[in-house]
Protein backbone atom coordinates (compact mmCIF):
# COMPACT_ATOMS: atom_id res chain seq x y z
CA UNK A 1 0.00 0.00 0.00
CA UNK A 2 2.94 2.38 0.47
CA UNK A 3 3.11 3.13 -3.26
CA UNK A 4 -0.65 3.50 -3.75
CA UNK A 5 -1.63 7.03 -4.70
CA UNK A 6 -4.33 8.91 -2.82
CA UNK A 7 -7.08 8.43 -5.41
CA UNK A 8 -6.60 4.68 -5.42
CA UNK A 9 -6.46 4.69 -1.65
CA UNK A 10 -9.85 6.41 -1.52
CA UNK A 11 -11.30 3.96 -4.05
CA UNK A 12 -10.15 1.01 -1.96
CA UNK A 13 -11.37 2.66 1.24
CA UNK A 14 -14.85 3.05 -0.24
CA UNK A 15 -14.77 -0.71 -0.88
CA UNK A 16 -14.12 -1.23 2.86
CA UNK A 17 -10.50 -2.25 2.33
CA UNK A 18 -9.15 -1.95 5.87
CA UNK A 19 -5.53 -2.08 4.65
CA UNK A 20 -6.24 1.10 2.66
CA UNK A 21 -7.63 2.73 5.80
CA UNK A 22 -4.52 1.75 7.77
CA UNK A 23 -2.33 3.25 5.04
CA UNK A 24 -4.38 6.46 5.13
CA UNK A 25 -3.92 6.58 8.89
CA UNK A 26 -0.18 5.92 8.59
CA UNK A 27 0.26 8.51 5.84
CA UNK A 28 -1.58 11.43 7.43
CA UNK A 29 -2.02 10.85 11.17
CA UNK A 30 1.20 12.57 12.29
CA UNK A 31 0.71 15.66 10.12
CA UNK A 32 -2.86 16.12 11.36
CA UNK A 33 -1.76 15.53 14.94
CA UNK A 34 0.87 18.28 14.65
CA UNK A 35 -1.66 20.73 13.21
CA UNK A 36 -4.22 19.99 15.92
CA UNK A 37 -1.67 20.12 18.76
CA UNK A 38 -0.66 23.64 17.75
CA UNK A 39 -4.22 24.73 18.51
CA UNK A 40 -5.16 22.51 21.45
CA UNK A 41 -1.86 22.37 23.35
CA UNK A 42 -2.77 19.14 25.14
CA UNK A 43 -1.41 15.82 23.83
CA UNK A 44 -4.20 13.60 25.11
CA UNK A 45 -6.97 15.86 23.80
CA UNK A 46 -5.14 16.12 20.48
CA UNK A 47 -4.72 12.34 20.24
CA UNK A 48 -8.41 11.77 21.01
CA UNK A 49 -9.57 14.34 18.47
CA UNK A 50 -7.44 12.99 15.62
CA UNK A 51 -8.46 9.43 16.42
CA UNK A 52 -12.12 10.48 16.34
CA UNK A 53 -11.49 12.03 12.93
CA UNK A 54 -10.16 8.76 11.52
CA UNK A 55 -12.91 6.71 13.15
CA UNK A 56 -15.49 8.96 11.44
CA UNK A 57 -13.71 8.51 8.10
CA UNK A 58 -13.92 4.73 8.44
CA UNK A 59 -17.53 4.72 9.61
CA UNK A 60 -18.66 7.13 6.84
CA UNK A 61 -16.31 5.85 4.13
CA UNK A 62 -19.13 5.10 1.72
CA UNK A 63 -20.76 8.53 1.85
CA UNK A 64 -17.93 11.04 2.32
CA UNK A 65 -16.97 13.29 -0.59
CA UNK A 66 -13.19 13.27 -0.37
CA UNK A 67 -12.72 15.80 -3.16
CA UNK A 68 -9.82 15.94 -5.58
CA UNK A 69 -7.00 16.63 -3.15
CA UNK A 70 -6.88 14.38 -0.08
CA UNK A 71 -4.41 16.31 2.16
CA UNK A 72 -6.44 19.51 1.78
CA UNK A 73 -9.70 17.67 2.42
CA UNK A 74 -8.29 16.11 5.57
CA UNK A 75 -7.14 19.50 6.86
CA UNK A 76 -10.60 20.97 6.28
CA UNK A 77 -12.13 18.01 8.10
CA UNK A 78 -9.72 18.66 10.97
CA UNK A 79 -10.75 22.34 11.13
CA UNK A 80 -14.37 21.30 11.56
CA UNK A 81 -13.36 18.89 14.33
CA UNK A 82 -11.42 21.67 16.06
CA UNK A 83 -14.40 24.01 15.73
CA UNK A 84 -16.61 21.41 17.41
CA UNK A 85 -13.97 20.79 20.08
CA UNK A 86 -13.86 24.45 21.13
CA UNK A 87 -17.63 24.79 20.89
CA UNK A 88 -18.07 21.95 23.38
CA UNK A 89 -15.08 22.57 25.63
CA UNK A 90 -14.63 26.33 25.49
CA UNK A 91 -11.16 27.78 26.09
CA UNK A 92 -8.88 26.61 28.87
CA UNK A 93 -5.58 28.21 29.87
CA UNK A 94 -3.46 26.57 27.17
CA UNK A 95 -5.91 27.39 24.41
CA UNK A 96 -6.12 31.01 25.54
CA UNK A 97 -2.33 31.30 25.60
CA UNK A 98 -1.99 29.87 22.07
CA UNK A 99 -4.65 32.23 20.79
CA UNK A 100 -3.21 35.19 22.73
CA UNK A 101 0.19 34.61 21.11
CA UNK A 102 -1.46 34.54 17.69
CA UNK A 103 -3.26 37.82 18.39
CA UNK A 104 -0.03 39.36 19.61
CA UNK A 105 1.81 38.27 16.45
CA UNK A 106 -0.94 39.83 14.36
CA UNK A 107 -0.75 43.10 16.30
CA UNK A 108 -4.12 42.69 18.04
CA UNK A 109 -2.93 42.04 21.57
CA UNK A 110 -4.13 45.42 22.86
CA UNK A 111 -7.46 45.24 21.03
CA UNK A 112 -8.93 41.97 22.27
CA UNK A 113 -9.03 39.95 25.42
CA UNK A 114 -8.94 36.21 24.55
CA UNK A 115 -11.07 35.57 27.63
CA UNK A 116 -13.95 37.16 25.69
CA UNK A 117 -14.01 34.02 23.57
CA UNK A 118 -15.36 31.80 26.33
CA UNK A 119 -17.19 29.36 24.09
CA UNK A 120 -17.48 28.81 20.38
CA UNK A 121 -21.09 29.31 19.34
CA UNK A 122 -23.15 27.06 17.10
CA UNK A 123 -22.59 29.02 13.88
CA UNK A 124 -18.81 28.52 13.83
CA UNK A 125 -18.83 25.56 11.46
CA UNK A 126 -20.75 27.57 8.85
CA UNK A 127 -18.51 30.56 9.52
CA UNK A 128 -15.44 28.37 9.10
CA UNK A 129 -16.70 27.10 5.75
CA UNK A 130 -17.48 30.64 4.55
CA UNK A 131 -14.02 31.94 5.48
CA UNK A 132 -12.24 28.99 3.93
CA UNK A 133 -14.26 29.41 0.71
CA UNK A 134 -13.39 33.11 0.61
CA UNK A 135 -9.68 32.36 0.95
CA UNK A 136 -9.84 29.74 -1.80
CA UNK A 137 -11.61 32.19 -4.13
CA UNK A 138 -9.14 35.05 -3.64
CA UNK A 139 -7.09 36.01 -6.72
CA UNK A 140 -3.83 34.04 -6.77
CA UNK A 141 -1.57 36.92 -5.73
CA UNK A 142 -3.87 38.06 -2.95
CA UNK A 143 -4.18 34.52 -1.57
CA UNK A 144 -0.41 34.04 -1.75
CA UNK A 145 0.24 37.27 0.17
CA UNK A 146 -2.47 36.47 2.73
CA UNK A 147 -1.16 32.95 3.39
CA UNK A 148 2.46 34.09 3.63
CA UNK A 149 1.43 36.68 6.20
CA UNK A 150 -1.06 34.63 8.23
CA UNK A 151 0.19 31.07 7.97
CA UNK A 152 3.94 31.56 7.65
CA UNK A 153 4.12 34.74 9.74
CA UNK A 154 6.16 36.69 7.18
CA UNK A 155 6.35 40.45 7.63
CA UNK A 156 5.25 42.90 4.95
CA UNK A 157 8.88 43.62 4.07
CA UNK A 158 9.70 39.89 3.83
CA UNK A 159 6.73 39.29 1.54
CA UNK A 160 7.73 42.31 -0.52
CA UNK A 161 11.23 40.89 -1.05
CA UNK A 162 10.01 37.34 -1.66
CA UNK A 163 7.38 38.27 -4.27
CA UNK A 164 9.16 41.31 -5.73
CA UNK A 165 6.30 43.61 -4.77
CA UNK A 166 6.34 47.02 -3.13
CA UNK A 167 5.43 47.10 0.58
CA UNK A 168 2.46 49.30 -0.35
CA UNK A 169 1.17 46.64 -2.76
CA UNK A 170 1.54 43.95 -0.08
CA UNK A 171 -0.42 46.04 2.43
CA UNK A 172 -3.12 46.74 -0.16
CA UNK A 173 -3.46 43.01 -0.89
CA UNK A 174 -3.75 42.23 2.82
CA UNK A 175 -6.33 44.98 3.35
CA UNK A 176 -8.40 43.71 0.41
CA UNK A 177 -8.16 40.14 1.68
CA UNK A 178 -9.48 41.19 5.10
CA UNK A 179 -12.25 43.21 3.45
CA UNK A 180 -13.31 40.10 1.50
CA UNK A 181 -13.41 38.08 4.71
CA UNK A 182 -15.55 40.69 6.41
CA UNK A 183 -18.02 40.78 3.52
CA UNK A 184 -18.24 36.99 3.39
CA UNK A 185 -19.12 36.80 7.10
CA UNK A 186 -21.67 39.65 7.29
CA UNK A 187 -24.58 37.21 7.25
CA UNK A 188 -23.23 35.51 10.39
CA UNK A 189 -23.02 38.73 12.39
CA UNK A 190 -19.48 37.70 13.33
CA UNK A 191 -17.33 39.89 15.52
CA UNK A 192 -13.75 40.74 14.53
CA UNK A 193 -12.53 38.45 17.32
CA UNK A 194 -14.61 35.55 15.99
CA UNK A 195 -13.21 36.03 12.49
CA UNK A 196 -9.68 36.10 13.88
CA UNK A 197 -10.41 32.91 15.80
CA UNK A 198 -11.47 31.10 12.61
CA UNK A 199 -8.42 32.34 10.72
CA UNK A 200 -6.33 31.08 13.65
CA UNK A 201 -7.98 27.67 13.36
CA UNK A 202 -7.22 27.48 9.65
CA UNK A 203 -3.65 28.69 9.92
TrEMBL record:
Pfam families: Sigma70_r2, Sigma70_r4_2
GO BP term (any one): DNA-templated transcription initiation
Sequence ranges assigned to domain RNA polymerase sigma factor 70 region 4 type in this UniProt record: 130-181
Domain RNA polymerase sigma-70 region: 27-89
Cytoplasm among keywords: no
Domain of life: Bacteria
This protein's UniProt keywords: Sigma factor, Transcription, Transcription regulation
Coiled-coil intervals, chain numbering: none
A GO MF term: sigma factor activity
Keyword Nucleotide-binding (UniProt): no
Annotated family: Belongs to the sigma-70 factor family. ECF subfamily.
Protein's UniProt name: RNA polymerase
Organism: Pararcticibacter amylolyticus
Amino acid sequence: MRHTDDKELIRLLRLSDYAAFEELHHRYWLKLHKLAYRKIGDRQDTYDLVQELFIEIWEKRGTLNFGEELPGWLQKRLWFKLSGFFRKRGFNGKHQENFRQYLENQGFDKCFDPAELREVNACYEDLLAAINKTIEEMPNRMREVFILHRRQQHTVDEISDKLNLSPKTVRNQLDRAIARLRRSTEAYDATALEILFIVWLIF
